[in-house]
C-alpha cells in the first residue's frame, strides 16, 4: 500500500506545528490555521502545487505588511525587534560588491543604531558625511586617473 501523495506534506506540516507549539508560538488561531492548511492539502488533487500556491500567497501578503515604525530605512516588515538594511551596494564582477552600505539597530537596552560602509561602522551622521565626502573625493581622483591612463594608452597606439 502506497502512501497518498500528500502524506509527506501533511507529516511536515504536523511536525512544523509541533515545533511552533514547542517554542511557545502555539495558540488556538495557529491550531486552526494548521488544520485548515492540512485539510486543503489533503483534499487537493495536486498537493505540491497547492503548497506552492499557499507559500506564494503568504509571501505576497508578507510583503504587504506595514513598514518599520521606528526606522524609515529598516527593510524589516511586520513585528520585529532588530532593524536593518543591507541592500545598498555597487555590484562587482564577482560575488562580492565593490562597495556596500547599510544600517543596523539591534534590540536591547542600548539600541544604538549604526550606519556602515563596507567594514567601517559609524555612530552618527557627521562621521558618515565625513567618510562619504572622502569617498567622493577618491572617486573624482579615480575618474581623473582613468582619463590619464586611457589617454596615455591611446597616445601610444
Layout of strands and helices, then pairs:
Layout: H1 7-22, H2 28-43, H3 47-63, E1 83-90, E2 99-105, E3 114-117, E4 120-122, H4 125-156
| Amino-to-carboxy terminus distance | 78 Å
Number of strand segments: 4
* Form type: elongated
Mean pLDDT: 86
Helical proportion, percent range: 40-55%
- Which stretches of 5+ consecutive residues score pLDDT under 50? none
Radius of gyration: 25 Å
Structural class: alpha+beta
Spatially, the strands of the biggest sheet line up as 1-2-3-4
Tell me the series of helices and strands, N- to C-terminal.
HHHEEEEH
Q: Tally the helices: what do you get? A: 4
Tell me about the biggest sheet?
A: 4 strands, antiparallel
Strand content: 5-15%
Protein described:
With 157 residues, the protein is an alpha+beta fold. The chain has four helices and four strands, in the order αααββββα. A four-stranded antiparallel beta sheet has the order 1-2-3-4, covered by helices on one side. The chain is elongated, with a radius of gyration of 25 Å. The model has no long low-confidence stretch (mean pLDDT 86).
